[in-house]
Amino acid sequence: MIRCALGLPEAMRREAAALYWQAFGGKLGRVLGPEPLALAFVERVMRADHCIIAVGPGGLVGLAGFKTPAGSFAGGTPADLRAVYGAWGGAWRSGVMQLLGGDGDQTRFLLDGLCVRPDQRGQGIGTALLAAICDEGRARGYGAVRLDVVDTNARARALYERRGFALERSTPIGPLRYVFGFREAHTMVRNL
Length: 192
Prior knowledge:
Blueprint: E1 3-6, H1 13-32, H2 35-45, E2 51-56, E3 59-68, E4 71-72, H3 78-99, E5 109-116, H4 125-139, E6 144-150, H5 154-162, E7 166-172, H6 177-180, E8 184-191
Parallel strand pairs: 5-6
Antiparallel strand pairs: 1-2, 2-3, 3-4, 3-5, 6-8, 7-8
Helix pairs in contact: 1-2, 2-3
């Protein structure tokens, strides 16, 4: 039985960082790699109060981060980048990440990454996490949930569409596609 809960227990931080990196390392690896440093960075910046976890008999099986005006699940700051990668490594990584742009949308509840353990996919965990995110957004007074999914992740986009999310816009990332490995970010919205 899978149980979703708000917040990330301290004992699950390392496992959560590994799960997050497994899901997003392909996109972020050229910037946040090598993997040991990326894991240290993700574990450092994760906000335990900005995620919903899915736990099963085998432990952590999925998580969904979110962003609010108070912060984001896996954002971090230039100071965090410098602390993990050093002065030069932190500086160039910060510059590249800023090229993707910030997100000033404060009118909708923002999903900041959803991941499910590979051996647990196809069992409804992503659907349960999306339902929990929608419930959390509603409880916080938002009228809609917004997310971005890259054009190379058709499986995730199909899940979001099945769960009532509609495409709002597609944003090409231009030459950054050579760094991040995708061409467009699709913004999807579901009214609550």
